[in-house]
């Protein structure tokens, strides 16, 4: 596979049944020759952001919950923010994808006082843990048919219906991928 997948979505194919990733939507935050790192954006936990980062709770996008970003380093937190189209990246934010004028998604330094940047953001999600792949591991999984690689939209990580995101992203692709959205999660029940 040529090129970086940074800023792309990985959608688990129905063949990927690992409980950590079944029907997951992963936003790739970094991909290079050394490997890849991303967060699962469709797995809210039943834990408010305030349980981990109380000062960020008032700014968290609904449902205001912590999300399980992946199986690696569950004791760490990553913050994703949406920056509206007419704003440059605020202090403490590193753009992952998008551009000024169209809106962007970035990683926020969670040591930044939230009040100092909250007016410059249109979305915030906090993730416990992340998904990581060593060099060439992700490319191998894609070649084996474990992942669909699809374009991300700036609204995806902040979906008001994260549990529906897997199907929503597939449906907007049209064609055969749209049909996959109706694939039953348990084929024995079909």
Condensed summary:
This protein is mainly beta. The chain has four helices and ten strands. The protein has a single domain, classed as VC0467-like (3-Layer(aba) Sandwich), CATH 3.40.1740.
Q: Can you tag this structure with a few keywords?
A:
globular; VC0467-like; 14% helix; 4 helices; mainly beta; ten-stranded mixed sheet; 37% strand; 190 residues
Description:
- The structure is a single chain.
- The protein is mainly β and 190 residues long.
- It has 4 helices and 10 strands; from the N terminus they run ββββββββαβαβαα.
- The longest helix is centred in the C-terminal third of the chain and has 9 residues, at 165-173.
**End-to-end gap:** 35 Å
Instruction: Label the structural class.
Output: mainly beta
Task: Enter the CATH topology name.
Answer: VC0467-like
Q: Would you count the extended β strands for me? A: 10
- Count of the separate structural domains: 1
State the CATH class: Alpha Beta
The proportion of residues forming helix, as a percent range, comes to: 10-25%
Radius of gyration over alpha carbons? 16 Å
The CATH architecture is 3-Layer(aba) Sandwich
Can you tell me the residue ranges where pLDDT is under 50 for at least 5 consecutive residues? none
**What oligomeric assembly is this protein in?**
single chain
Strand content: 35-45%
Mean pLDDT: 91
Report the principal-axis shape.
globular
Taking the sheet with the most strands, its summary is: 10 strands, mixed
Q: Count of helices?
A: 4
What would CATH call the homologous superfamily? Answer: VC0467-like
Return the string of H and E elements.
Answer: EEEEEEEEHEHEHH
Pfam families: DUF179 (PF02622)
Family: Belongs to the UPF0301 (AlgH) family.
Protein name: UPF0301 protein BJ968_003109
GO cellular component, one term: cytosol
